[in-house]
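ingest -> validate -> predict -> emit
validate: passed (alphabet ok, no gaps, 224 aa)
predict: started
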Amino acid sequence: MKIFERLYNGVVKENPTFVLMLGMCPTLAVTTSALNGMQMGLTTLAVLAASNLIISLFRSVIPNKVRIPSYIVIIASLVTVVQLLLQAYLPSLYSALGIYIPLIVVNCIILGRAEAFASKNPPLVSLFDGIGMGLGFTVALTLIGMLRELLGAGTVFGFNVLPQSVEPISIIIMAPGAFFVLCWINAAINKIKKKNPKSHATAKSCGDCAGCSMSGVCSGTKQD
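emit:
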């Protein structure tokens, strides 16, 4: 049951992009198309799930004073393996993602989950926490990429969607377009939340405030 909870939290409740607002660099830079967004999300998912599992397995061995450098070494090693595999077997994907593959090392989602969750929980649950957060990141990047590609080029995953008579908004697939689309999606999410309010005033602390989007409203904090 806790496994499904971690998957749900990663995709919906604690979505790293739309709720926690983490990993903004690849979110804004890579999502010029739905395919690029999905590929970047899946690449990050693989590193996130593997790093969570390994860090959880060795959490009792890693000294507390050097835990952050140790996490970075583990994450960097996994990213290097993924980068070499992509370069060898998926060169087109490697070329499309470019510099953003090695930048996964400093993605705050991965290091944040390592510190807030994997270092304190059993391996299996940590693995599914990584998968859940990775899926949430993949869904977010794919959705942003779909909207940018649709509005900016009239296609989705390379297939023409808009009729030829409709002029695409070219700025959407440029750098400013990423901010526009991200703001639109977050505005829509906030609108939905206001229409379906939940009582957070009585929420109890889960003990994972560092990695929880409810860190400001739990522990019995009264809401205005």
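Residues 54 and 123 are 8 Å apart (CA to CA).
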